[in-house]
Design a protein that fits this description.
Elements: E1 2-4, H1 12-20, E2 24-27, E3 37-38, H2 41-65, H3 69-82, H4 87-101, H5 107-132, H6 142-150, H7 159-163, E4 167-175, E5 181-190, H8 191-227, H9 247-257, H10 262-275
Antiparallel strand pairs: 1-5, 2-3, 2-4, 4-5
Helix pairs in contact: 2-5, 3-4, 4-10, 5-8, 5-9
Length: about 280
Amino acid sequence: MLDCNGILELDSKAATRNALKQNYYLPIGAKDPNDKQPFSFQWSILSFVFSGTSFLCCKFFWKFMESNHLTFLSSKCQDSLLEPEKRGELATDIVSYINKCERGQNLMKKYVIANLISLGVMVGIFIWYLESVDYFSNPFSVNDFNKWTRADMEQRTDIMIKLFPRRLVFPYESTGNSGTLQRSGIVCIAVVNHVLEKLYVSAIIFLTLITSLQVVSILVSFFAITLFHITTKRNNKKIMGLRNFTYGQRLILALLYKNIDAHLWCAVLDVIEDTLPIV
């Protein structure tokens, strides 16, 4: 993380250990000891861990809210690939299960809440990253960032070099042979900040894309579930029978449709057509 030069009685390894113990550093050329800057590369690494954990939590949040109903159905549907002769019986069980599991479950409300929470977490992390690089006060583009990284490190004054400095000086005090206090500085190169700077900008770009895709995915999903425009290669008119289903039941079918083969899906539609009047 740090590559430090030896100083006084400290060799390079001892100087690096001493620097890592400190929370502040002095910029190269600083004359006033009060010009200390917080040394927080650990916080930068933790920010990636926190954001990654948040994404994983969002991934499993919906599964927790829907109590693994879809996991149960999907596992049953996988058996149909092994025993095709039981497809009709399995389709009947699926429709029966969908009718029962929706009662009192409010799955559609849970689905909306889970998606809104996921979107809120993404937007929150996105704003947090932008705020950490002072983007709202001094916005920059990818081209600006490329110009900064190509410039001489000693000449850079942009926000990214301030957040992820390369050359640091850590104050060091020791007692000389005569008993006098000696003040010096440990000069270090923050190797980790070369990587963190690029990762930070990449994360901002990635969050922009994934947040936009999440918004589009939510709109398309809600539109499809509300109007229930699910198609099948066999007979599109069978979809009319699904209009008798609640939004929660439609949600289960819409998500289940993505995880079953076409033959089983048509068998499910046959059962629905036989048990519900077409409107």
